[in-house]
Every structure is written in C-alpha cells, then in structure tokens.
Task: inverse folding
C-alpha cells in the first residue's frame, strides 16, 4: 500500500478480536520502532511488551483503553539518556523520540494488517509502578496492538480534517 493510503486508512481501533499477534509480526513492528530516528541517535526510549493475562488484567485496572487488544506496547524513555537542548533549559527529546518510535511501530502494524490505538489516557506513574520502572524512566504512551474485531470501525470524527491552509504557515 502506498504511504499516503496507509496514513489515510489507519484508524484507532476500539474493539479487538481475541486472535493473538504472531511473534513474527510483533518482531516486525518492534524492528520498525528500533530503526526510528531519535535526537543525536541516542535512542533513549524503550518499549515494554505486555502480553500475559496477569499483566494485562492489572493494566486494565489502570485504564479502560485496551479494548480487548491482546498486546499493549508501552513506550518509555530514560531522562538520563535523552538529548538536552543546550540552548534552552528544560527542552529535551525523550517524549518526541518515544513518540517517533511508536509512530513507526503503529504504521508498520497497519501495513501488516494489524490494528492499533494510541493511548495517552493513562495514569503514567501507576503504569511505571506496574512495570517496575526505575525512577529515571518515564511512561509516554501505550499502543494497543492486535487484530480488529469484524465490527470495528473508525470513529465518526476520523475523516474530519482541518484544511491544510489552517495547519501550514508558509513564509
């Protein structure tokens, strides 16, 4: 599929089938994240793959946003490893780097016939505790991953886009 079609067709899935994600496809999704660019190529992000019934049950206690996905990818970054902008205090790359990696994973998943949902509706500190993360590792987002249920469909807002003139400022 052409990239423009892939980007347009992908939608946030809110109902998954019970079919597990094959390890080969999961590996391809993770490899796509691995090759994503990061500031100064520091690669401060990590992905935590939640697949076991016990961890998914505990995750469900923290957020209603899994929608039955058999796999959840939790993207984090280490504040001790991300790039710091020397020109302005407090500006760093960790969240951006993790988000870029997650975007690559999301688009690769779509290309493989898998469905995703990008989730920020999380109690990040509680997810970090669930995963036993060190104090320097921050949760950025979770990406539900699986096969869409037959009745899954895009939200009514999916196709609504602002005109490009409202988003791009040419100077």
Result:
């Amino acid at each position: 599929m052409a990239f423009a079609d892939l980007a347009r067709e992908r939608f946030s899935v809110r109902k998954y089938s019970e079919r597990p994600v094959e390890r080969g496809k999961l590996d391809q999704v993770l490899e796509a994240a691995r090759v994503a660019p990061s500031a100064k190529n520091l690669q401060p992000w990590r992905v935590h793959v939640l697949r076991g019934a016990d961890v998914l049950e505990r995750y469900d206690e923290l957020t209603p946003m899994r929608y039955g996905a058999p796999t959840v990818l939790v993207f984090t970054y280490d504040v001790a490893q991300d790039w710091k902008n020397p020109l302005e205090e407090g500006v760093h790359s960790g969240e951006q780097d993790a988000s870029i990696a997650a975007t690559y994973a999301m688009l690769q998943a779509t290309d493989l016939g898998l469905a995703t949902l990008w989730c920020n509706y999380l109690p990040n500190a509680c997810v970090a505790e669930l995963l036993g993360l060190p104090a320097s590792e921050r949760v950025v987002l979770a990406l539900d991953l699986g096969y869409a249920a037959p009745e899954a469909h895009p939200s009514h807002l999916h196709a609504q886009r602002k005109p490009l003139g409202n988003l791009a400022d040419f100077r």
